Amino acid sequence: MKETVRQRVRQTSLSLVKNSIQAIRRKDICKTGCRLIKDGKISITGGLGKVNEEELFAKAEKFLAEAVEYPVEPGGSLSHKTDLSGFRISDAELCDKIENILQQLKTSHPNFYISNKVNLSSIDYSIENELGLNLSHSDTYLSLSFLLKESSSTGIMDTFFGVAQRELDETRVVDAVNQIIEAYQNKLEAIDGEIPVIIDQGTLTRLFLRDLNGKMVGNKASLFDGQFDQQVFSEDFSLRIANDPIETFSPAFDAEGTIANADLLTLIERGFIRRPYTDKRTARQFGFMNTGCAGGNYDSVPSLGTCMLEIAPSDKTLKQLLQGKMGILVAIASGGDFTPDGMFASPVQVAYLTDGEKLIGRLPEMTISGSIFDFFGKNFVGVSSNKFYCAGDERLAVVNLDVKKL
Q1: Are strands 309-311 and 239-241 parallel, antiparallel or unpaired?
Q2: How confident is the model at residue 331 (pLDDT cuts 50, 70, 90)?
Q3: What is the spatial distance between Cα 18 and Cα 115, in angstroms, rounded to a whole number?
Q4: Residue whose C-alpha is closest to residue 281's, from 291, 272, 267
Q5: SS3 7
Q6: Rounded CA gap, 315 and 333, in Å?
Q7: What gap in Å lies between CA 61 and CA 39, rounded to an integer?
Q8: Which of 44, 119, 191, 365 lies in the 20 to 30 Å Cα band around 199?
Q9: What pLDDT does residue 387 have?
């Protein structure tokens, strides 16, 4: 059975140095992978640019005898198309708009430098085979990544603004960066006690990427071994695989061409651990359901990769979750990690006090710590129904924590 993976990435990248565009780079890269799946084996060849696919399949046939074991059924009889490529902006217009943003911010805050990258990316990705699999994904989006630094600072950066979007709202970007800089300059006293901490979901959920990995669970090496179908976390906590291309900027299908059933995307349901995430091979090996989490390059054998996880949001805004209190928004927390038993500790280099709508000021450096079972158990407040633009236009988790000043 022949299966073809095609990928095209077109990108314009602007390099920013001290409030101006210093370089413009463009790339247009096409990649083709040809998979030959036969008798429980898979042989893959690939090429860049314009290729002769029949020659690639002929080459794969030569190596089939020594190919990798692949004892799974290839996908078929499935058609799916996602087209999110409606955002249109020329390179010249992009440069003009970014220059305008940088100039406005330089005028507002002449003592701050803005550096790093702006990337305009167009992605086309497809998988098709002889069994009727026909999947495609197209997207065009803009990534802003601003390192913000005081001119008198000796560091690489002092604070940060980053967002991915399918539009360029200059006013919104300028307002957000102004708010961040103004809050950074407003130094506040340290706060003691149990405080609602507002944090990017990925910071706390990355332990689940390790311990809900199907191989870890299947080999009984997971922290959650023996706890499946038991209530381990708060009934307000549910964790699921994110596969909505609008939210993830990624295809709805995985590298094997699987689109998992909606009921299989929930890994933790109202505190009960239900299942690990898997690909076809792992699901078959350990008797799990396939959740469509295969990864791999265009010319590599699909295998279990990491998936995107999201906490099911509450029906409350960030301000409502705070219940009239002030919260600590973690902006930069570098150097933290989980231990094998689920304990987490991290220094927080930059944090802001917020009422859930606006940044008030910058708090001194601090540390946050605790157990994964407390983060999403007794200390869990919820995830906002709305997105917070200053923090990357993301839905944020709120957890009650004891914070300590460094």
Answers
A1: antiparallel
A2: very high
A3: 6
A4: 291
A5: strand
A6: 27
A7: 12
A8: 119
A9: 97
CATH architecture of the domain formed by 2-185: 2-Layer Sandwich (3.30)
Q: pLDDT-derived band of residue 192, with 50, 70 and 90 as boundaries?
A: confident
Residues 6+ apart with CB under 8 A from 378: 234
Does residue 396 carry a pLDDT above 90?
yes
DSSP 391: G
DSSP SS3 for 264 = helix
193 torsion bin: left (phi>0), alpha (psi -120 to 50), beta (else): left
Provide the pLDDT for residue 65.
Answer: 86
Rg of the chain in Å (alpha carbons) = 23
Total residues found in the chain within this entry: 406
Confidence of residue 190 (pLDDT cuts 50, 70, 90): very high
DSSP for 8-46?
A: EEEEEEEEEETTEEEEEEEEEEEEEEEEEEETTEEEEEE
Angle at 243 between CA 237 and CA 249, to 5 degrees: 115
Closest C-alpha among 141, 125, 142 to residue 82: 125
pLDDT digits (tens, 9 = 90+) for 338-373: 999 999 999 999 999 999 999 999 999 999 999 999
Percentage with pLDDT > 70 across the chain = 100
* Distance, CA of 80 to CA of 83 (rounded, Å): 10
Q: Are 278 and 254 in contact (CB under 8 A)?
A: no
Q: What is the mean pLDDT of residues 204-229?
A: 97
Structure tokens at 14: 């602007």
**Annotated domain spans of the chain:** 2-185, 194-203+313-405, 207-311
